[in-house]
């Protein structure tokens, strides 16, 4: 009996030592500083500007391109990344449009990431309207090119525009790409579902996400032949970690629930508008799978034209097939 008691005490002491070792290690791990900006990402940041929205600094990048054209293009990025998603087609776009503008939404990229904060698609649409006013473009007709999360922000902007809401943007055209605009054909990734529905556990989980965990998750939404390089994965992660953005991911992810709640408003805007519409679609997308997603889109949005890219292209078509993406967009924008 004494031997059993001694063994139990020794076991308890061993676990206590393990716990005492783990606590400082975990404390260090949870406060790992964000990675350094790569030269490419730092160049993107230093070439941009900031404006203020309700006390928060919002990053945007603007390029003045073609002389003799008055066309303005506004780029709206997806979750969980940033305006840097557009870097591969930035230069070609500036050769077609007089002004090309991209922003990092509140809580993303180089913009402020307040917490606690109730992030919403409605607020992000107001962020965009504030930027357009800040740039003196409120009277200008704006072309919008969006992706993923940005698609839903674009649909809220479209709703406001078509209903002549105060401060609205006048939308000249709208091109969407690989966004979960229909809740019934949208399949969020496992991590997204866990973070958005875990309540008080979510803040713990957001602290535990590291680069390896993130990169393993996001590689699944790229095609097998269109995978990002290690450096590109790091740029994505660095943009998330900037200003502790990993700690607000659970709050931002409530947009999935908002899409369901406001489906009638946003899908209704898409089906009733007279604005020229286009969809560029990477068909290997596991989040909005083929053919389910695109068949529903074509059924409900009959006025829209559609470009389905190469069968190997997945959820990030502007990064996976920038040439095909740009050419598809150019064909659309030159068609009216």
TrEMBL record:
Residues 72-322 form the AB hydrolase-1 domain. The keyword Hydrolase applies. Pfam families: Abhydrolase_1 (PF00561). It is a multi-pass membrane protein. One of its GO terms (cellular component) is endoplasmic reticulum membrane. It comes from the Eukaryota. GO terms for biological process: acylglycerol catabolic process. The chain crosses the membrane at residues 14-32. GO terms for molecular function: monoacylglycerol lipase activity. Keywords: Endoplasmic reticulum, Hydrolase, Membrane, Transmembrane, Transmembrane helix. It is found in: Endoplasmic reticulum membrane. Gene3D superfamilies: alpha/beta hydrolase (3.40.50.1820). Belongs to the AB hydrolase superfamily. This is Mesoderm specific transcript. It comes from Cyprinus carpio carpio. The lineage of its organism: Eukaryota, Metazoa, Chordata, Craniata, Vertebrata.
């Amino acid at each position: 009996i004494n031997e059993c008691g001694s063994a139990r005490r020794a076991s308890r002491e061993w676990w206590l030592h393990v716990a005492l070792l783990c606590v400082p290690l975990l404390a260090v791990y949870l406060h790992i500083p964000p990675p350094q900006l790569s030269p490419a990402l730092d160049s993107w940041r230093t070439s941009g500007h900031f404006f203020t929205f309700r006390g928060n600094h919002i990053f945007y990048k603007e390029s003045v391109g073609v002389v003799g054209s008055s066309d303005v293009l506004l780029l709206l990025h997806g979750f969980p990344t940033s305006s840097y998603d557009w870097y591969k087609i930035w230069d070609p776009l500036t050769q077609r449009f007089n002004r090309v503008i991209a922003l990092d939404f509140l809580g993303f990229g180089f913009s402020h990431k307040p917490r606690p904060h109730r992030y919403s698609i409605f607020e992000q649409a107001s962020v965009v309207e504030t930027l357009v006013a800040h740039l003196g473009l409120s009277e200008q007709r704006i072309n919008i090119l969006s992706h993923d999360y940005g698609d839903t922000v674009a649909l809220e902007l479209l709703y406001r525009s078509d209903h002549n809401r105060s401060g609205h943007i006048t939308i000249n055209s709208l091109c969407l790409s690989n966004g979960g605009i229909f809740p019934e054909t949208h399949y969020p990734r496992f991590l997204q579902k866990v973070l958005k529905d875990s309540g008080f556990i979510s803040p713990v989980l957001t602290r535990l996400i590291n680069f390896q965990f993130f990169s393993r998750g996001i590689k699944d939404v790229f095609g097998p032949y269109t995978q990002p390089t290690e450096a590109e994965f790091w740029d994505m992660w660095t943009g998330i970690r900037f200003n502790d953005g990993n700690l607000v991911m659970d709050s931002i992810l409530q947009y999935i629930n908002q899409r369901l709640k406001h489906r009638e408003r946003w899908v209704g805007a898409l089906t009733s508008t007279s604005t020229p519409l286009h969809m560029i679609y990477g068909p290997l997308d596991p989040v909005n799978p083929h053919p389910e997603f695109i068949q529903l889109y074509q059924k409900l949005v009959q006025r829209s034209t559609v470009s389905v890219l190469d069968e190997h292209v997945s959820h990030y078509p502007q990064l996976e097939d920038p040439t095909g993406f740009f050419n598809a967009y150019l064909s659309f924008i030159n068609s009216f």
